Amino acid sequence: MSQPAKAIPSEAIPVQRTAHPRPRPATDEPLPFGQVFTDHMFLLDHVAGRGWRTPRIVPFAPLSFSPAASGLHYGQSMFEGMKAVRGVDGQIRIFRLDRHCRRLAKSAERLCMPAPPATLLREALMALVDVERDWVPDGRGTALYLRPTLIATEPFLGVRPAEEYLFFVIASPVGAYFGSGTLRLLVEEEYTRAAPGGLGGVKAAANYAASLRAAEVARKKGWAQVLWTDAVHHNAIQEAGTMNVFVALDDEVATPPLDGTILGGVTRDAVITLLRRAGHRVRERRITMDEILEARRTGRLREMFGTGTGAGVASIGELGWREQRIVVGDSGAGPIARRLSTVLADIQSGAAEDTDGWMTVVC
User: Fold this and answer.
1) pTM to 2 decimals?
2) CA-CA distance, 295 to 184, in Å (whole number)?
3) Nearest to 104 by CA among 95, 113, 91, 92
4) pLDDT tier for residue 27 given thresholds of 50, 70 and 90
5) Is the pLDDT of residue 229 over 50?
6) How many CA atoms within 13 Å lie on the side-chain side of 70?
7) What is the pLDDT of residue 3?
8) How far is CA 79 from CA 88, 148, 208, in A?
9) What is the average per-residue pLDDT within 47-75?
10) CA 130, CA 208: separation in Å to the nearest integer?
């Protein structure tokens, strides 16, 4: 079981409290995802040769930097996403804090950006959650979503790594990303999310900009999102919208390998651990649409689901592929996804023992 961490004192990270607190969301209404923001944010500056400086927590407000900031022009911009959950015992826990910090550093390295030191990053996130503790919702399936972001701010119109950066963290009380029900996905064959050697394996803002057009086309056709396929043959599946994807075939649960085109999801990693612990045979391997079609024809396609920080575990009930509609299982939430969702929620809330040390207790 994880142990409570000592709160970060205000003199370590100065806190400027807001004079105008925002109203809290109504407790009797579903929380939207990413539309409500808390009272404060964390800021940290970086200048080449001087390093990271002036960590502070200040009231949530617009940011100010030059219109010539190189991150706006050349895409040196990335983010992370993680959740703080109020437990059944009233304590607030962050899910896999250290793993998220490591992934942030990996993304920054790929984009030629400096990452805040792991110790400072960890303390900053815990300090912000501690300041915003009253914003952490207490309903099952809700959380305080944390969005650490790094952007190049040097005013320079030239193609090279910037020498000035702003790192900030904002927070938002959220409910389920997709709401209830299973997802219907359109298999994407025209647009490409990521190619070998590109940015698909990190949380670059550019990845999400590249995904928008395909997602909008899918929605206009009545689908919730897209199922991405490989950039060469558009047959091997990659991700489900912004989630990692799993396919249950007979007694095997398969998920695409981390080949550089797929984000190494923190929830994906946890789900693989939980599946194996429950006795499932898990393989990280190439999965094609041809295999999915054949599995559906022969009755081997048991269920599909996506995983992610925002979505948790989301069942996939139907695919659209070349004018065909492929019903997955009975189109409802599958038993594997339902169990995983329950187990994850129990661990995050403290209702089940955290045998893997995934939870960091903040306060």
Assistant:
1) 0.94
2) 18
3) 113
4) confident
5) yes
6) 17
7) 41
8) 29, 6, 11
9) 97
10) 30
In the prediction, which pLDDT does 29 show?
Answer: 85
Single out the residue of 32, 309, 290, 304 nearest to residue 172, CA to CA.
Answer: 32
Closest CA to 338 of 309, 305, 300: 305
Residues 290 and 309: their CA atoms lie apart, in Å, by: 29
Matching residue, tokens 């205000």: 10
How confident is the model over 335-358, as a mean pLDDT?
Answer: 96
pLDDT (0 to 100) of residue 83: 98
If 0-12 CB within 10 Å is exposed, 13-18 middle and 19+ buried, where does residue 134 land?
exposed
Question: Can you list the alpha helix ranges (DSSP code H) found in the chain?
Answer: 70-74, 97-110, 118-131, 205-220, 266-277, 289-298, 335-349
**Rounded-to-integer distance, Cα 71 and Cα 161, Å:** 9
Chain segment 164-212, per-residue pLDDT in tens: 999 999 999 999 888 778 999 999 999 999 999 999 999 999 999 999 9
pLDDT of residue 8: 41
28 falls in which pLDDT band (50, 70, 90)? confident
What is the structure's pLDDT at 12? 80
CB 167 within 8 A of CB 47: no
Q: With contact defined as beta carbons under 8 Å apart, do 132 and 21 qualify?
A: no
- One-letter amino acid for residue 265 of the chain: G
Q: What distance in Å separates the CA atoms of residue 242 and residue 267, rounded to the nearest whole number?
A: 12
CA 72/CA 156 separation, integer angstroms = 10
Calculate the dihedral angle through the C-alpha atoms of 290, 291, 295, 300, rounding to the nearest 10 degrees: -170
User: Token match 């048991």: residue?
Assistant: 302
The gap from C-alpha 159 to its chain's centroid, in whole angstroms, comes to 29
150-171 exposure pattern, b = at least 16 Cβ within 10 A, e = fewer: bbbbbebeeeeebbbbbbbbbb
CB neighbourhood size of 290 (10 A): 10
Q: What stretches of 7-115 adopt beta strand conformation (E)?
A: 40-47, 51-59, 77-79, 82-86, 92-95
d(CA 134, CA 21): 11
Kindly tell me the sign of the dihedral angle through the C-alpha atoms of 63, 97, 363, 120. negative
Handedness of CA 233, 234, 239, 241 (dihedral sign): positive
